[in-house]
Amino acid sequence: MPSVSTRSSVTPWLFLTPAFVVIALILLYPVFSGVRLSFFSYSMRDFAVGADPTFVGLDNFRHLFASPHFRNSIRVTLTFVGSVVALEMVVGLALALLMEDEKLKGLRLFRTLFVLPIMIAPVVVGLVWRFMYHPSYGILNYFLQTLGADPVMWLSDPGMALPSIIIADVWQWTPFVFLIVLAGLQSVPKDLTEAGIVDGCSYLQNLFHIKLPMIGSVLLVAAILRLIDAFRALVVIFVMTYGGPGVSTEVLSLHLYKTAFTAQRLGRASAVAVILLGILLILSATLAIRTLRSERR
Amino acid sequence: MFRKIWTLLSIVVMCTLVAGGLWAAGQAEEEAVGPGLEAPDEFDWRAFEGETVVASFPSHVAYDAAVELIPEFEELTGINVELDQVAYMRLNDAQLLEMSKPRGDYDLIAAVVMWKLEYAEPGLVRPLAPFFDEEGLTMPGYDFDDLVDAYVENTGMVGGDKPYLGGEGAELYGVPLGAETSLLGYRADLFEEHGIDVPQTYDELVEVSRYFAEEVDGIYGLAMRGASGHQATHSWLMHASPFGASVFDENWEPTVASDESIATLEFMQKMIEYGPPGMTGFDQDGQFNAFLQGDTAMYLDASVIAGPARDPDRSQIVDEVAFARHPEGPASALSQTGGFGLMIPSNAQNPEAAFLLMQWLTSPEIERRAAMKGAGPVRYSTMEDPEMQQMFPEYVVLREQVDYATPDWRPIIPEWGEINQEIGIGVNEVLTGAKEPREAMEEVEPRIRSIMEEAGYYD
Q1: CB proximity under 8 Å: B 419-448 to A
Q2: 3-state secondary structure chain A
Q3: Hey, which residues does B405 pair with through a beta bridge?
Q4: Smallest CA–CA separation between B398 and chain A, in Å?
Q5: How far is CA B164 from CA B248, B323, B407, in A?
Q6: Where are chain A's structural domains?
Q7: Which residues of B159-176 are buried (b: 16+ CB within 10 A; e: fewer)?
Q8: Which residues of chain A lie closer than 8 angstroms to B100, CB-CB?
Q9: I need a surface site. Which of A251, B223, B230, B339 has the fewest CB within 10 A?
Q10: Contact A245 B279 (CB under 8 A)
Q11: Tell me, which fold does domain A67-296 have in CATH?
Q12: Helical axes A161-187 vs A122-132, angle rounded to 10°
């Protein structure tokens, strides 16, 4: 008969086993086979005729870093991610600060309205913005022309397309930041801010020295979640520009899609995926470490 | 209790029998009205009775029309037809997946012409000659030679003068259904009002575009696709043949930076200048809308627009639109070929029954009836029929145009998907003004060469 201590040390592992098996099957296996495929040359056609992938070592990666399209897509991705996350954090925080006061009239209604964009399917967001940006029939150019301004070629001007997509993404995801930050602000104990006011703090002093330091970890979580999501953004851009004009809005995920399904190079596409995965892993690890640390505190 | 259940069951059974009987009577009545084709005595329509044909079709006007008629085929042959109809962009993956299995679920597939080599070269689809040669399989009155030659070569021929063309050694793998060429669509009312002749050359096309854009308020010249990638490549290729430009020379060396190609791009730049705002972002829908909503005086692209142009839900110019031949360029008067073809997978479970459906759908009489529902014709006889011409005046022009349709305007090789993207990025950069034509094409050319080199074309 096993002793009590042995039983108690084995039992938790037994309970965990099914979860481990499921995760290994649906998560680890695809990731490992994706990483493996990135060292092979393999096309849809090879797949159809049952041909085996050819081992090419690091060729896929070498080819990627030599390709101007890939380097461009890295640049576009960094511009896109940097802009949307910065804008969403600033606007989301500002909105949360505005809506923080429980006594504001109609607050609930506004909060509900603000959250609506998150609920809309990305394909629909892409289509709606595409119509709004339409050069002849779009509502934005209609307003511009009513005001006597020249129409803007939102999605077909190489200089305007990326900013236009950034606007759409900010519209959709600012509410997400807003929600998280609002929850953070409401958890700041009232007596702290009130004590600040009693001591003669201005609004800004109160904000920068009391509220923001208090919700620092919340802001970090919001920023990292948005970063991870923005790196994977595909559908809205796919629908709005499909990477055009030229390659001015071709983000990494779209480059991956085109490599896999237009050029039909599954191995090389896997290499893009591995690079994207690497970037996301670093970001997620940062998130996990920071969260753990703040919890320990 | 048992008695109650027994009574209830009897009622249900009786109701089912009565309903079934009524339904059968209805069916019999429909049968008396007659299926689409009268079966001559010598051909056994019911040879494959009871078999099931699974067809992979796109959502496309020609296939929507065909699908409506298929119940008559089932009636006539006793073959059960199951349809898997999806957006055409999703067909390729689904078909490849099915054809990679030892026993596929698809017996008949509709493939975009660009995929034919991808399917035929590794033997994923069957050559059709054995079917046509087998006694008792070819339906009476099918008349293969009546199918438009350029369409047959474009959709079906593999392994001839070039891998994707007919000629010596070529084999037939597909039969066109939903195939098309290019036509010039124009606003007859505007042309009459301003006393302008329909352009017959590219020079006249430029001049007429300029006239409408500069002299007529609220009207632009030509509706053209321009979006980055496939759309821009499509436009460039379609104008390239008239200008004498091509993607490759006879040794597979890319020639997209040739003088002819630059001239093509300079023409397209003018069309952007005289075109509606935002045309550099137009896909086919954007192009259709610009013309059908009355923004442009002209349209030059796939003939499939004739259907939507007549549809009051989509078109503001139903009574004003007219069609003319694709204008003649400095080098030729050639027009494009494209669309879909029907093929039979090698792993099909009921290939003979599928062959029967393939013939039936592309037979003269069914084609005429599908044409009434908006499908574009692929047979000379349909285009030449005075009755059909009365209903669809563009058939007169279409009949002339198909003699100039070339299957060699676009190199259908397995590497085309990637090359298509590369050219389309370069062309779009020219159209948006980001790069000069020669600069852009001199950047694209080495990329095409490296794709071809990697694929072993120069070994």
Answers
A1: 420-421, 425, 428-429, 432, 434
A2: CCCHHHHHHHHHHHHHHHHHHHHHHHHHHHHHHHHHHCCEECEHHHHHHCCCCEECCCHHHHHHHHCHHHHHHHHHHHHHHHHHHHHHHHHHHHHHHHHCCCCCCCHHHHHHHHHHHHHCCHHHHHHHHHHHCCCCCCHHHHHHHHCCCCCCCCCCCCCCHHHHHHHHHHHHHHHHHHHHHHHHHHHCCHHHHHHHHHCCCCHHHHHHHHHHHHCHHHHHHHHHHHHHHHHHCCHHHHHHCCCCCCCCCCCHHHHHHHHHHCCCEHHHHHHHHHHHHHHHHHHHHHHHHHHHHHHHC
A3: B335
A4: 31
A5: 14, 30, 9
A6: 67-296
A7: bbebbbbbeeebebbbbb
A8: 47-50
A9: B230
A10: no
A11: MetI-like fold (1.10.3720)
A12: 130
Beta bridge partners of B321: B187
Closest Cα in chain A to B280:
A156
Segment B387-407 mean pLDDT: 95
Question: How does residue A166 score in pLDDT terms, banded at 50, 70 and 90?
Answer: very high
Please give the pLDDT value at position A296.
65
Task: Please identify which residue in the block is written with the tokens 């309903």.
Answer: B19
Subunit contact A48:B228, Cβ cutoff 8 A: no
Beta bridge partners of residue A54, listed in sequence order: A41
C-alpha B284/C-alpha B227 separation (Å) is: 9
Q: How confident is the model at residue A18 (pLDDT cuts 50, 70, 90)?
A: very high
Q: Do A49 and B432 touch (CB under 8 A)?
A: no
Measure the CA–CA gap between B118 and B399, rounded to whole angstroms: 30
Domains recognised in chain B with CATH numbers: 52-180+337-402 (3.40.190.10), 181-335+412-454 (3.40.190.10)
What pLDDT does residue A47 have?
78
